[in-house]
Amino acid sequence: MNFRIQSFWHRLGAIAGKVRLAAEMIGQARKHYGGSYYSVGLRFLDVYAKHFSPSEIVELDLLDVSKSRGEIDELISKENMVRLQRTFNPVELTNQTENKLDFERLCAEAGLPSARSVATVETRPRLSASLNGEELAGGDVINALVTRLPPGAYVIKPRDGALGRGVRVFSCGATEPKRVGDTLKEHLDRHGDFASWLVQPKLINHEDVTLISPSPALQTVRLVTYVDGNRDVRILLAGWRLADEKAEFDNFSGTGKNNVFCVIDPADGSMRKCFMKSRHPFGFGLREVVRHPVTGQILTGLQPPMWQDIVTLGRKAALVFLPSKCLGWDIAMTSAGPVLIEANRYWDPHNEDTDMRRVLGYLRAENGKVDS
Prior knowledge:
seven-stranded antiparallel sheet, alpha+beta, six-stranded antiparallel sheet, 12 helices, 372 residues, single chain
């Protein structure tokens, strides 16, 4: 079978898979929300034409036919958001944020506190590792790395990963090194689509964070900043991601069933609304919560620890990373103060935040100024 025929059947199979997924979503939505197959099917075609992904369609309740077209028009898909973000963030500077080593270097040069790597691992074209800039020799470089790392907890993550994919916490010193090395090798094999990895000491949440949400996973604040033509830094959106006690990271794509996202009022740092994943088997919608799912503490009205320091760090970082003008910063709160974990040039739209409508209007107006 020649390449063209193979490519044709591959595309046809992909189309068939999408059709099956759409049919299942429409059927499940009709049972959950009500309405006819016809009305739900038309709604699906409408939101699909607006470039919403299947996960967005489910999470945002877009197949609920009681939602008006006007309500849906106030939302923006990730795909359309990326188009808007590209007008503010030069594509040629992508590596400054998406390559975590480049991000670390820029932060270090500017004196910005950030997560720092002590080792790197490459899986292609051959398996290699380095510790503090020194390449490790020998046939089993992973076990050599584990043996030479000082005792403590570490995080291994893809250099260009996103949404927590491939992140793994491991410890050295308390377990036999070969066992730790074998676990890491299995992890690298499982995520073979990533070729380059970083190893960083695991940062620890500030004790005031764990009083609110007692999880060992790093629980970060997201700040979305925009730098206008006068070099004034605006905090457009903010949120705090609280992690399940069993989660290794804090976003909804992880395994933590009790992860929470809290919308923050950028004006004063208070949490206005908090959301968890839906309990529905198919995942329709988010559910709003007032209390922490483990401690029972009321979350609404609270302010993340170090809020003003977080804002100060975000504003400083926004100016350092110019000419990228609109970035989403993930900032951890540690005993040493706030620390930059990463910058996101294609940050996900905060459709669950009613301020997103205002922010979209502002960004589109700013985009109009650039065009003119």
